[in-house]
Design goal:
The complex is a heterodimer of chains A (about 300) and B (about 140).
Chain A (H helix, E strand, L loop, with lengths): L11 H16 L12 E6 L5 H12 L3 E5 L13 H11 L2 E6 L4 H8 L4 E6 L5 H15 L5 E6 L6 H10 L5 E6 L8 H9 L5 E4 L2 H4 L5 E4 L10 H7 L18 E3 L20 H19 L4
Chain B lengths: L8 E8 L3 H7 L9 E9 L3 E8 L7 H7 L4 E6 L2 E4 L8 E3 L20 E6 L4 E4 L8
Antiparallel strand pairs in B: 1-3, 1-4, 2-3, 4-5, 6-7, 7-8
Classes of the chains: A alpha/beta (about 300), B mainly beta (about 140).
Chain lengths: ~300, ~140
């Protein structure tokens, strides 16, 4: 029985297969409409989320399955002090698969040891968010036709941005990927990502605080939000939250086939005026999230 | 300084200077009934300075602890005055409850009964990371 806790739990080949399945679901949705009939997905969200939870639920419904769960810790027994291990042991008797979001790092791993059914990490604090990474990879593949030979810029909060860490890890396994890291000095990528991922795999990367100078080279621009919930100190958040704001003017020097991504929710780091630009793909990306989660549920439930 | 030779026991030699006391505590040698000598800052041709531990009894050593704290230690088991040098110690792939995760965002910070498990992620630099949050052990 397999779970998905970290994107690197999946081989490159498995990711390719998931992307192929997702593309087939997009092309032939009726073929998949009853694949999970009689199966139940439990969405255990100990931390609020809109997109991720709804896309998991929509994914299961579109596969013909059912959904149960909760969307905040207050409505679960954890508010009475129940451990993650005990909660999922019980849920494992009621559901065939679990998608879990939790504010504490490593909680889904604990769940996978105890649940008795596959567990999908739907985000554990600032740590991992593998289904967002799968969503990103599917979008890049659909927009650019490849996952290798790309120059990928990451901009914003690269310190706490779990989607950034996971996507860098995933892209580091493809040939000739160059990474450009754009952030304020206080929010740079953690040292261990640089040493143990980028340097260890000889990935070419540069760090800069200047988005404009990096822009002309980029094939992908991955914008992120500075997340209030990751700061212990409100003053630091206020000082850094408006570091980078993408506008139509800043995009004038970008490639015509640039692909702009953002894991959403957006606050103000991408001006609404950018949405009209054909290079803005973040809503497409959110849509793709449902299809890749459908493919993942099928794989983990071993549904043919 | 002279410490008498032992007839039956264990000598942990070539301990990196400064690691002796940590090993003494981690191996619970203070709980043994037999004689234990902890020698700190002994002269060493190879290392300059080293620590040595002599235990006047053959005990079951926890090699995970030894390998985690100092994989370069030489373990000599003395039986009837004869020295059997053991094979080189390897750092363990995982250590459980030997070190504790200090990351306040880690699930181990709130779930008190969880084992604290660390995995060796970089052999060359002896880096261990928490299996839950990937925080590096200090």
């Amino acid at each position: 029985m397999k779970s998905l806790i970290d994107i690197l739990d999946l081989s490159v080949n498995e990711i390719d297969n998931l992307i192929d399945t997702a593309n087939d679901i997009i092309a032939n949705p009726e073929k998949y409409a009853h694949k999970c009939q009689g199966k139940k997905l439990a969405t255990l969200f100990f931390e609020p989320s809109t997109r991720t939870r709804l896309s998991f639920e929509a994914a299961m419904y579109e596969l013909g399955g059912n959904v149960l769960g909760f969307s905040e810790a207050q409505s679960s027994s954890s508010s009475k002090g129940e451990s993650v291990a005990d909660t999922v042991k019980v849920v494992g008797y009621y559901a065939d698969i679990i998608a879990m979001r939790h504010p504490k790092e490593g909680a889904p791993l604990v769940a996978s040891y105890n649940a008795g059914v596959p567990v999908i990490n739907a985000g554990d604090g600032g740590h991992n968010h593998p289904t967002q990474t799968l969503t990103d990879l599917l979008t890049i593949k659909r927009e650019k036709g490849r996952l290798d030979n790309l120059t990928v810029g990451f901009c914003g909060d690269l310190k706490f941005g779990r989607t950034v860490h996971s996507l860098i890890g995933a892209l580091s396994r493809y040939e000739n990927v160059k990474i450009v890291l754009v952030s304020p000095k206080e929010l740079t990528v953690p040292e261990y990502i640089k040493k143990e991922v980028l340097e260890a795999k000889n990935i070419e990367f540069i760090e800069t605080t200047d988005l404009e100078s990096a822009m002309p080279d980029l094939d992908i621009l991955y914008m992120t939000r500075v997340q209030r919930e990751r700061f212990f100190n409100e003053q630091d958040y206020i000082r850094l939250k408006d570091s980078y704001i993408l506008t139509p003017e800043k995009l004038e020097i970008a490639k015509n086939d640039l692909c702009i991504l953002h894991p959403l929710p957006r606050v103000n780091e991408i001006k609404v005026a950018v949405d009209k630009d054909s290079r803005a793909k973040y809503f497409e990306q959110a849509k793709n999230g449902k299809y890749i989660r459908m493919a993942l549920i099928l794989k983990l439930l071993e549904v043919e | 300084m002279i410490v008498n030779p032992i007839e039956n026991g264990i000598v942990l030699d070539h301990i990196k200077a400064g690691n002796g006391m940590e090993l003494y505590k981690a191996l619970n040698l203070d709980k043994l009934g037999s004689t234990v000598a902890l020698i700190i800052n002994a002269d060493s041709r190879k290392m300059g300075k080293k620590d040595i531990i002599k235990i006047d009894e053959v005990i079951d050593l926890n090699f995970d602890i030894l390998g985690y704290i100092d994989p370069d230690v030489t373990v000599n088991v003395i039986k009837n005055g004869k020295n059997e040098k053991l094979a080189k110690i390897e750092p363990p792939q995982t250590v459980t409850n030997l070190i504790h995760c200090k990351n306040p965002r880690c699930i181990t910070s709130t779930e008190q009964e969880l084992d604290h498990v660390f995995k060796l992620t970089d052999r060359e630099n002896m880096v261990y990371r928490c299996i839950y949050c990937e925080t590096k052990a200090k």
